[in-house]
Design a protein that fits this description.
The protein is mainly β. The chain has two domains: 44 residues; 232 residues, no CATH class. Strands 1, 2, 3, 4, 7, 12, 13, 16, 17 and 18 form a ten-stranded antiparallel β-sheet that branches. The chain has a four-stranded antiparallel β-sheet with strand order 5-6-8-9, with no helix packed on it. A two-stranded antiparallel sheet has the order 10-11. Strand 8 and strand 9 form a beta hairpin. Helix 1 packs antiparallel against helix 2.
Length: 286
């Protein structure tokens, strides 16, 4: 009888996993990190429901679509101090950020492929970056929208692509060379001055990459609970600070999506297995 109860429990768990195969929706926890040079990371977290795969079946992940109306990642409102004297009069950056609506795909899971997997990696990051001048209260600031719309250039921004610029011809000019999301290995550049306050400049490459895998690092089961996708958006920041030179700073965005079981399904499975165990005990007593 004990073996029968265990077999029934395993069968019900299997049904719970495969019973969701007809759905094209998966719950997720997500994290968005923005990392500018050696400054502290700017995090945003959240949960929601992602639409996956055009066929509506789960298993191998083909694409992910995130939509604000189904929850999302956001509420980042972080002030990052800038203490480098060479950056004066910039004293910090105040950023609010959240994921917009868009699609990542196709996703092969093979980040080493010679073919870019995310040919439709358009998923914007909405929000505002304020470059705070003179005071950490940020009363005087240069504002930069992370996503911009113009009749001439269309939509550009972080997670999309294009060049974002603030300052124009003023003494402080900052440009961000944005890029779409990718799973592949990408490199951006940090310009380092040595010693601190010195005049010797060198360029340091920073390299990051994304990935996609299922519960057991298997790329054919990414679109299942415990599957994980991390996409990156590599960007290059160029400023006219440091005595008029074009200072380069690496900027990377990291989007991590972790698929999780539906809470209602977990409750159903738990109660079903518990019921089977009680039934087995009752029969054993007889």
């Amino acid at each position: 009888m004990r073996k029968l109860v265990m077999l029934l429990a395993v069968a019900m768990l299997a049904f719970g996993v495969t019973g969701t195969a007809s759905a094209a929706l998966l719950n997720y926890h997500g994290t968005l990190l923005l990392e500018l040079g050696t400054l502290p990371s700017i995090p945003a977290i959240g949960s929601g429901v992602a639409t996956v795969n055009s066929s509506g079946s789960l298993g191998h992940l083909d694409y992910i679509r995130l939509k604000g109306s189904r929850g999302g990642i956001g509420n980042a409102n972080v002030f990052v101090p800038v203490t480098d004297a060479a950056a004066a009069p910039i004293v910090g950056i105040l950023i609010t950020a959240e994921m917009g609506t868009g699609t990542l795909g196709p996703i092969s899971g093979n980040a080493n492929s010679s073919v870019e997997p995310l040919t439709s990696g358009i998923l914007p990051i909405a929000g505002l970056a304020k470059v705070c001048l003179l005071s950490t209260a940020c009363g005087t600031a240069l504002p930069l929208l992370l996503t911009q719309h113009t009749p001439v250039t269309g939509t550009k921004g972080v997670g999309i692509g294009g060049i974002l610029t603030i300052g124009g011809t003023s003494p402080i000019r900052i440009s961000i060379e944005a890029a779409p999301w990718t799973l592949k290995t990408k490199t951006s550049i940090d310009q380092i001055t040595t010693p601190v306050g010195g005049t010797v400049k060198k360029y340091v490459n920073r390299t990051e990459k994304g990935f996609a895998h299922g519960p057991s690092t298997n790329t054919t089961s990414t679109a299942t609970p415990s599957g994980v996708v991390q996409a990156i958006t590599p960007m290059q920041v160029v400023t006219n600070l440091q005595n008029g030179t074009n200072l380069k700073i690496a900027l990377f965005g990291f989007l991590t999506i972790h698929f999780i079981p539906e809470p209602g399904m977990l409750l159903l499975l738990g109660s079903g297995v518990a019921g089977l165990v009680l039934l087995g005990r009752h029969r054993m007593r007889k």
